[in-house]
């Protein structure tokens, strides 16, 4: 059936799969195959050949199941942890040559975005819960992603590289040499949480914590069959913590029905969550079995028009960009003016540039974050903006889109790409042209507030046969803006083939 699609997620310890009816968002089949990719990565930095063999066997079994169900369309993604391997690209090529599977990479921000979609669509009463401060904690083998909501809206997202398997691999030598391993492990985790806690908004009480992720298999016995979530309280979680910190591996294996190979991660998992919940001072703890696979299913169902996403995904991306701008103390009035002019120019010059909704969003994001580099150096801020944006988490953008935003920010100022765009050779020609168009529009928008005084109150855009004319109504003289546009508008003329000019009149 056309509405049924397959999904594959290659994680740090398992390859997950599902066959889902997107029209009704119902799973026909779901399962996982254990593949110890994370153990290789965190121990040796590379995925070993025998692990690749195990992955190939798992994928071939999954493809056979897809064929049995008549499923011809599928999405396959590799988690961020998978692509941390030094030889990840070689492994991707091996998987393709041996199974025909092309694995798409996921950034941490993309994974967080998909998980947010999963909880909005499938977590009971989620919109009611997030009216209070709520932190979604997704814990995988290699990392922990924290996504905060307040007043019913997305607040921010942070990733911490302290997943339980990673912690265990790092601390395994310590466990064998110290008598107070729990204390040392707690201190190690607290040291990694310090910067995260310092950056939390001080005026928000995070009443609720929602725990989810592939590393929470030890809690699955707490979730009744047929349900996706269970609610507990701080006292209930304290009991689990006290039990685990005094238990042997054999006891944990028997009590939580875990293979012995996973018991070593129980203590780091519980200790990590306990310290997070304690630091957040949360009252309620929700445990959910939703994961990245659920988010992919929801995203594809919404993309095909079978359901509403339950939230505005663009809003989450924009808020993420605003958070980044605030972290690097970008002038909010200039930022907002630049965003406003950018979108105005985009909308009124649509016939000239021919771009669509997604490109408009990329321009909005670039206009929001283009000045973050001023935090380091105001004179060459565009250089620093590029690498800050590249190294940051922008929710919902692909790695290519994030690279595009960073490059647009790089060229929004006096610097500009080669005329033939050859210095952007790592991107295909269509994306290079999009970057050039959006950078040209952003240059113009930035020029319109060159004085940083928001003089222009309204703007009229006219496309004439021989030029683009901007007519501004201002509350003060706009000579600096006109002079700046005369310089920075040359790139606009090179890209679109028309010069651009600003005329202004001052209100009486």
Indicate the topology.
Layout: E1 4-10, E2 14-21, E3 26-34, H1 37-44, H2 49-69, E4 74-78, H3 88-99, E5 104-105, H4 108-122, H5 126-129, E6 134-139, E7 144-150, E8 153-160, H6 164-175, H7 181-199, E9 208-212, E10 229-233, H8 234-245, H9 249-255, H10 260-263, H11 266-280, E11 284-288, H12 292-303, H13 313-327, H14 332-348, H15 350-353, H16 357-369, H17 381-391, H18 399-410, H19 429-447, E12 456-464, E13 467-474, H20 479-496, E14 500-506
Parallel strand pairs: 1-4, 4-5, 6-9, 9-11, 13-14
Antiparallel strand pairs: 1-2, 2-3, 6-7, 7-8, 10-11, 12-13
Describe this structure in words.
Pfam families: Ppx-GppA, Ppx-GppA_III. It comes from Lacticaseibacillus mingshuiensis. This is Exopolyphosphatase. Residues 320-468 form the Ppx/GppA phosphatase C-terminal domain. With 508 residues, the chain is an alpha/beta fold. It is built from 20 helices and 14 strands. It folds into 3 domains: 4-105, 2-Layer Sandwich (Nucleotidyltransferase, domain 5), CATH 3.30.420; 124-289, 2-Layer Sandwich (Nucleotidyltransferase, domain 5), CATH 3.30.420.150; 313-506, Orthogonal Bundle (Hypothetical protein af1432), CATH 1.10.3210.10. The protein has helices at 37-44, 49-69, 88-99, 108-122, 126-129, 164-175, 181-199, 234-245, 249-255, 260-263, 266-280, 292-303, 313-327, 332-348, 350-353, 357-369, 381-391, 399-410, 429-447, 479-496, and strands at 4-10, 14-21, 26-34, 74-78, 104-105, 134-139, 144-150, 153-160, 208-212, 229-233, 284-288, 456-464, 467-474, 500-506. It has a 6-stranded mixed β-sheet, with helices on both faces. The longest helix is centred in the N-terminal third of the chain and has 21 residues, at 49-69.
């Amino acid at each position: 059936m056309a509405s049924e699609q397959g999904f594959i997620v290659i994680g740090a310890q398992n390859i997950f799969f599902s066959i889902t009816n997107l029209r009704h968002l119902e799973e026909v089949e779901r399962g996982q195959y254990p593949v110890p990719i994370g153990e290789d990565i965190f121990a040796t930095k590379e995925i070993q050949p025998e692990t690749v063999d195990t992955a190939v066997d798992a994928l071939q079994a999954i493809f056979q199941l897809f064929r049995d169900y008549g499923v011809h369309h599928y999405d396959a993604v590799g988690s961020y942890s998978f692509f941390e391997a030094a030889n990840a690209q070689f492994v991707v090529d091996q998987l393709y040559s041996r199974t025909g599977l092309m694995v798409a990479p996921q950034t941490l921000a993309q994974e967080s975005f998909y998980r947010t979609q999963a909880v909005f669509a499938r977590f009971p009463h989620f919109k009611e819960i997030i009216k209070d401060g709520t932190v979604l904690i997704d814990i995988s083998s290699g990392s922990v992603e924290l996504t905060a909501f307040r007043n019913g809206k997305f607040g921010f997202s942070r990733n911490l590289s302290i997943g339980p398997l990673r912690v265990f691999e790092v601390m395994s030598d310590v466990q064998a040499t110290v008598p107070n391993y729990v204390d040392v492990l707690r201190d190690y985790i607290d040291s990694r949480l310090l910067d995260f806690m310092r950056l939390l908004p001080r005026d928000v009480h995070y009443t609720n914590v929602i725990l989810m992720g592939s590393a929470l298999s030890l809690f699955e016995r707490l979730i009744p069959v047929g349900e996706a979530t269970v609610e507990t309280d701080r006292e209930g979680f304290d009991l689990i913590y006290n039990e685990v910190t005094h238990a042997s591996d054999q006891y944990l294996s028997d009590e939580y029905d875990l293979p012995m190979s996973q018991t070593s991660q129980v203590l780091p998992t519980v200790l990590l969550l306990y310290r997070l919940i304690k630091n957040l001072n949360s009252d309620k703890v929700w445990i959910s079995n939703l994961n990245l696979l659920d988010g992919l299913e929801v995203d594809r169902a919404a993309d095909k028009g079978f359901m509403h996403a339950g939230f505005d995904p663009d809003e989450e991306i924009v808020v993420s960009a605003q958070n980044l701008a605030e972290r690097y103390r970008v002038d909010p009035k200039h930022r907002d003016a630049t965003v406003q002019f950018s979108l105005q120019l985009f909308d009124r010059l649509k016939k000239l540039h021919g771009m669509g909704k997604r490109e408009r969003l990329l321009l909005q994001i670039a206009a929001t974050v283009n000045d973050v580099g001023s935090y380091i150096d105001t004179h060459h801020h565009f250089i620093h903006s590029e690498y800050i944006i590249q190294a940051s988490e922008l929710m919902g953008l692909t790695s290519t889109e994030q690279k595009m935003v960073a490059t647009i920010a790089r060229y929004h100022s006096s610097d500009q790409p080669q005329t033939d765009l050859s210095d952007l050779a790592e991107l295909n020609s269509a994306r290079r042209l999009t970057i050039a168009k959006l950078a040209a529009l952003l240059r113009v928008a930035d020029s319109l507030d060159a004085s940083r005084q928001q003089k222009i109150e309204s703007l009229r855009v006219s496309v004439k046969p021989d030029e683009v004319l901007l007519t501004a109504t201002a509350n003060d003289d706009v000579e600096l803006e006109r002079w700046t546009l005369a310089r920075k508008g040359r790139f606009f003329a090179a890209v679109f083939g028309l010069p651009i000019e600003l005329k202004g009149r001052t209100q009486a």
